[in-house]
Amino acid sequence: METAIDTSQELVLLDSEKAVLAVAMHSPKAGFDILTQLQPEDFSLESHSVIFEAINQLNQNSQTPTITKLADYLQEKKMLDKIGGIGYLSDVSSYFYTDEGFEDYVQIVFKNSIGRQLDRVLVNIRQLRESKAPIEEVFLVAQQKILNIKTEIKMDDAVEVKKTVVEVIKKIEDLEKHGGIVNGVPSGFTDIDQITNGWQKGDFIILAARPSMGKTAFALNLAVNAAERQKGVAFFSLEMPKEQLVQRVLSSVSGVDSGALRNAQGLSTEQWSRITNGGEQIKKMNIVIDDSPGLNVLQLQSKLRKMKRDFNIEICFIDYLQLISSIGNKFDSRQNEVAAISRQLKKIARELNIPIVCLSQLSRSVEKREEKTPLMSDLRDSGAIEQDADIIMFLYRDAYYKAKEYDMAEDNPTDETDVIISKHRNGATGVVKVNFLRNYGKFIDQSKNS
């Protein structure tokens, strides 16, 4: 027998669970929503979990979950006596009056389920602490278990096409009305925005190149361009400290040579004026930098969720993929580990509904070819990146492979750079040419280079 309920809060929960089950038994439409939004383990009593699962099974077999059919099903499974017999089924059924407002009962059941899950996690953490497990392991387990608790009811993703087509046509009308205005987060580069229409919500975007091609500089340019257009930006730097990143941004924004900023010797009054003005511009930007080294993917997810809540983040940059750690040591190869991290980042982008631009290394195979232009097969560690990403971009500077005398020539501080969009799940691909102002770490549209 089950424990007696002796508090008003538990009585409310018990009544809510019975009401949810009763609606699922009597209302086909509301019942479908309930079976979609809840799981057997969301119920506090085992008998209610069993009844819920029985209703679900009958619905999957296209049978109406009447008291008689439920009793037959449970009898066949030898579970009828365990839930209190046909009398208890009748009691649950009697809670149905109307399906109006059933969502309130679902919310009560779901919120209590979250609380119980959290309680179990806390007990587990306490047991780990008492077992003298390493504190790092306790943190990893705590993060993983807490982040695995779903805090929002799963809504039905199925939408009638007649409703979706109205939204699509409305979007086309808006684009026409506003002259093809970018509806995603702008990149700040005219030709890239024409191809992508801006970075779209939920997209996982890979920006890859060989070392010294300017990956970080380009990502910082994209971040600044978004921030200048009043977008909230998160930038995770797993390799470079935040002071160096901000110094790069300051050089780009102020137009003061990055070498002069590093040395800070003999700066002119005019340069100091630019630095001061650049600093004021940067202060107005909503860019949040996290330079924690060795972040694992769950820590990143947790931090980004908090950033979105606290700073209204609309786009995230990660520098770079191969420096992100996974949880535990369950992977038999680095390739499988990176594949798992890639899938998780895609999931995070969808869950938080923001674009994530993730930098990635390329394998050394590029250097062994006569033709150095990167290919998707050059992505380091994982072919799964190619599958997960919505957009894959490569940076390629021909000057990088020229003689060093040419590359470092003071009279040629601008390098033409190809931004190669090799994959675009929802649109066109192509090559966009931009100019890299090497002394300032700044990329600009070629048309703006005067």
UniProtKB/TrEMBL annotation:
GO molecular-function terms, A-Z: 5'-3' DNA helicase activity; ATP binding; ATP hydrolysis activity; DNA binding
Species this protein is from: Spiroplasma chinense
PANTHER family: REPLICATIVE DNA HELICASE (PTHR30153:SF2), REPLICATIVE DNA HELICASE DNAB (PTHR30153)
The protein's role, per its UniProt record: The main replicative DNA helicase, it participates in initiation and elongation during chromosome replication. Travels ahead of the DNA replisome, separating dsDNA into templates for DNA synthesis. A processive ATP-dependent 5'-3' DNA helicase it has DNA-dependent ATPase activity.
Catalytic activity as recorded in UniProt: ATP + H2O = ADP + phosphate + H(+)
One GO location term (cellular component): primosome complex
EC number: 5.6.2.3
UniProt superkingdom: Bacteria
Family membership: Belongs to the helicase family. DnaB subfamily.
Domain SF4 helicase: from-to ranges: 178-450
Pfam family, one: DnaB
Keyword Hydrolase: yes
Keywords: ATP-binding, DNA replication, DNA-binding, Helicase, Hydrolase, Isomerase, Nucleotide-binding, Primosome
Protein name: Replicative DNA helicase
Swiss-Prot/TrEMBL GO biological process terms: DNA replication, synthesis of primer
Lineage: Bacteria, Bacillati, Mycoplasmatota, Mollicutes, Entomoplasmatales
InterPro entries to which the protein is assigned, alphabetical: DNA_heli_DnaB-like_N_sf, DNA_helicase_DnaB, DNA_helicase_DnaB-like_C, DNA_helicase_DnaB-like_N, DNA_helicase_N/primase_C, P-loop_NTPase
